[in-house]
Amino acid sequence: MASKLVTSIFIFILISSVTFSGACNTCTPTTAPPPAPSCPKDTLKLGVCADVLGLVNVVVGTPESSKCCALLEGLVDLEVAVCLCTAIKANVLGINLNIPLTLSLLVSACGKTIPPGFKCE
């Protein structure tokens, strides 16, 4: 009788360990990719940045750049680049533009830099 009980317990433990350990072979923890950066500002308001593009020599602090840059105040370089990229692609500026050149001009007019590796696509 005792041997049947020991055998039953052994079989139960064996089946349990095989069942539970096999169920989690694919349970490796995964990390979600970081969320894509988004613009924390209302992109439609960035239409005022079109005025900056009308200047031949953009000077930081001019009324045209001040209107645009005031909307982007407090944002880090990546957020500024994302906001302006979104505005350019959505054509809220109202003109067809060369995206990399326009982005570079607008970002620098606000005293910011495009982060290395950032692409406006």
From TrEMBL:
Gene3D superfamilies: Plant lipid-transfer and hydrophobic proteins. Residues 1-23 form the signal peptide. SMART domains: AAI. CDD domains: HPS_like. Pfam families: Hydrophob_seed. Keywords: Signal. Residues 39-120 form the Bifunctional inhibitor/plant lipid transfer protein/seed storage helical domain. This is Bifunctional inhibitor/plant lipid transfer protein/seed storage helical domain-containing protein.
